[in-house]
């Protein structure tokens, strides 16, 4: 029953739900006052990303190091492996050089095992990093360092272990080479397809000598196969290995020369690369030096194996050897020009910061020095042997300097940096912003639904149906 002492507007305010209470000011003007259960709505503010405890763990300790362990770390195994080969092949062999090469061989094996384990943990714990790394146009190129580093271990196995352990070690090396060849060809072909099918256009200024890494992997596999073929006891197995190495050399070496032409055009039109990657100017020495050494060694093996197996003409092996020598000499001369250009680039860009790219000094110059020594042995020429020894000694000194800097940077942790993780973080931020926007849309309707539900629950139950109140004038 309505109280007759109340006016119509007062009675209407009393019947209103708590969320819409009407109060009267001194001028008897009804105003709506918000309920204490439903505070006034404030403008939506942008949600700031909060760092969770799981995210903070990724930036500290072993998780940060494993998460940022990019394939470029395998360049250490490339440099260490080529130092062991230089110590084994350098002229004027002595016992201490031989044992020192074994020491570097053991160190390289340990480093490769450690790097492979870290990479396996990285892609097992965070499998999403693999997709991001593959799609990165620069970081994915360093996948070529993995088969190259493994190939240096196989070569030293042939040099050191096969003479000591005999026949079974030969077939272990042969099987390891087959595995390395399959991986190297897969890297060369697949990365080429990925780069060509990449979304968006790339300017010529983005081309660097790092493009040679996945191509060089197949050339290194061909060079390793030549060393394996030289110790195989079965002549037919040796012949098949030699022919396979010729095929791999033909797949990769002309492609490397094509990239060199593009890279030279980039230098001519867009000048030197940035200081952070200027060391990559030495990378052209790798395909040229190793390509020349490989074709020379394959021709030398063909001169022995072809007559024994009746392959082609009896003089086919000698022809392959002669052609291989002059091709190697021409490639070595072309490498000499790139060596001069690399020295000029380093001189003009000094000083430049220390990073993992410094390992680009070691392997290209190392294989170029080995090619120089091999040319000196085949001629024979004291000039080439002495020059190769000088180059090899410089590589060993550079390895010592870079190894100290890498150990210091690894201990402090600042060398563990993977640029591709920035793309992963951007993708995660997009997902977070999308979910936050969705929550804000739902949040706008939330208070209204909450007040409606509270009104329903707070109203007393009615007995039957009441007639509406009618104001009496």
Description:
This protein has 473 residues and is mainly α. The protein has a single domain, classed as Alpha/alpha barrel (Glycosyltransferase). It has helices at 8-15, 53-58, 61-67, 75-89, 95-125, 128-135, 145-165, 167-196, 213-229, 235-270, 285-309, 316-349, 362-378, 382-412, 420-458; strands at 22-24, 30-32. Strands 1-2 form a two-stranded antiparallel ribbon. α4 packs parallel to α7 (145-165). The longest helix has 39 residues, at 420-458. Residues 45-55 have a biased composition (Polar residues). This is Sulfite efflux pump SSU1. GO terms for molecular function: sulfite transmembrane transporter activity.
User: In CATH, what is the homologous superfamily?
Assistant: Voltage-dependent anion channel
Structural class: mainly alpha
The order of strands across the largest sheet is: 1-2
Total domain count:
1
- By DSSP (H or I, 4+ residues per run), the number of helices equals 15
Give the C-alpha Rg.
Answer: 36 Å
Q: How far is the N terminus from the C terminus?
A: 16 Å
């Amino acid at each position: 029953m309505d109280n007759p002492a109340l006016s119509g507007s007062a009675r209407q305010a009393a019947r209103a739900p708590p969320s819409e209470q009407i109060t009267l000011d001194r001028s008897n003007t009804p105003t709506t006052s918000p309920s204490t259960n439903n505070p006034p709505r404030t403008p939506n503010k942008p949600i700031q990303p909060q760092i969770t405890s799981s995210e903070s763990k990724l930036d500290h300790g072993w998780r940060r190091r494993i998460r940022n362990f990019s394939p470029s770390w395998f360049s250490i195994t490339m440099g260490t492996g080529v130092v062991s080969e230089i110590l084994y092949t350098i002229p004027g062999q002595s016992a201490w050089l031989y044992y020192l090469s074994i020491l570097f061989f053991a160190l390289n094996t340990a480093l490769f095992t450690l790097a492979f384990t870290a990479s396996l943990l990285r892609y097992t714990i965070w499998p999403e990093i693999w997709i991001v790394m593959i799609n990165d146009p620069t970081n994915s190129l360093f996948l070529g360092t993995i088969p190259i580093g493994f190939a240096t271990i196989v070569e030293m196995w042939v040099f050191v272990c096969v003479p000591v352990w005999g026949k079974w070690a030969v077939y272990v090396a042969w099987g390891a080479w087959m595995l390395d060849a399959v991986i190297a060809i897969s890297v060369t072909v697949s990365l080429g397809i990925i780069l060509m099918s990449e979304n968006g256009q790339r300017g010529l200024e983005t081309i660097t000598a790092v493009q040679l890494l996945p191509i060089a992997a197949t050339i290194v596999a061909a060079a390793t196969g030549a060393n394996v073929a030289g110790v195989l006891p079965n002549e037919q197995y040796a012949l098949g290995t030699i022919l396979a190495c010729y095929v791999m050399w033909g797949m990769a070496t002309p492609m490397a020369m094509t990239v060199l032409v593009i890279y030279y055009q980039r230098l001519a039109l867009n000048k030197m690369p940035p200081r952070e990657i200027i060391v990559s100017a030495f990378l052209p020495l790798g395909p040229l030096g190793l390509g020349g050494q490989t074709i020379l060694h394959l021709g030398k093996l063909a001169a022995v194996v072809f007559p024994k197996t009746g392959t082609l003409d009896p003089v086919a092996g000698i022809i392959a050897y002669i052609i291989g020598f002059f091709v190697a000499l021409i490639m070595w001369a072309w490498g000499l020009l790139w060596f001069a250009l690399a020295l000029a680039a380093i001189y003009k860009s000094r000083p430049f910061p220390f990073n993992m790219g410094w390992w680009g000094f070691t392997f290209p110059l190392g294989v170029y020095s080995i090619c120089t020594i091999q040319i000196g042995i085949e001629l024979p020429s004291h000039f080439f042997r002495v020059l190769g020894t000088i180059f090899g000694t410089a590589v060993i000194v550079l390895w010592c300097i870079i190894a100290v800097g890498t150990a210091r940077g690894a201990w402090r942790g600042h060398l563990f940096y993977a640029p591709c993780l920035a793309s992963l973080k951007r993708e995660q931020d997009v997902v977070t912003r999308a979910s936050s926007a969705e929550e804000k849309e739902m949040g706008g309707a939330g208070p209204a639904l909450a007040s409606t539900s509270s009104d329903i629950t707070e109203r007393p139950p009615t007995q039957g149906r009441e007639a509406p109140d009618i104001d009496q004038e």
